[in-house]
Amino acid sequence: xxxxxxxxxxxxxxxxxxxxxxxxxxxxxxxxxxxxxxxxxxxxxxxxxxxxxxxxxxxxxxxxxxxxxxxxxxxxxxxxxxxxxxxxxxxxxxxxxxxxxxxxxxxxxxxxxxxxxxxxxxxxxxxxxxxxxxxxxxxxxxx
Length: 143
Fold this sequence. Notes:
This protein has helices at 18-31, 35-38, 56-61, 64-69, 135-142; strands spanning 46-49, 52-55, 74-83, 86-96, 110-122, 125-133. The chain is an alpha+beta fold. It has a 6-stranded mixed β-sheet with strand order 2-1-6-5-4-3. It is globular and about 45 Å long. The model is unreliable at 5-11 (pLDDT under 50).
C-alpha cells in the first residue's frame, strides 16, 4: 500500500529550490484568488494552455466563474515533482457551492475533486500549461 503524503509537503525538491519557491508564490496567489497578480508568472503576451495559445488575461479570466460559484475554492498540493524546466503537480481542489456555477444555483454543498497540471518554465515564467481537472465530479456533487 502506497503511503500518502500530507498536502503541501514537497519532499521531491529542496526547500530552497527556486522553481519550488516560484510555484509556492504562484499557488499562494491562486488560493488568495488574486488572479491579476498571477499574470506576472506567465509569458506574455500569450502562453499555451493545453497546446493552444491564450492571451494572458484570458488565462486568469477562466478562474472568475469558478470562484464566483465557489468563493472558498482552494488548491491543495498533494504531489509535486520537478524535471528540469517541467513542474508536475497533483492537487486536491475543493470549495463550497455558494454562487451560481454553470447555470446551477447555489446548493451550499462542499465539493472536492482532483487536478493534474504540468507546467513548462521558460526564463522563469510559465510558457506552457497542460491541465486536467475532474469537473464532471464537481458537477455531479452539485446536482
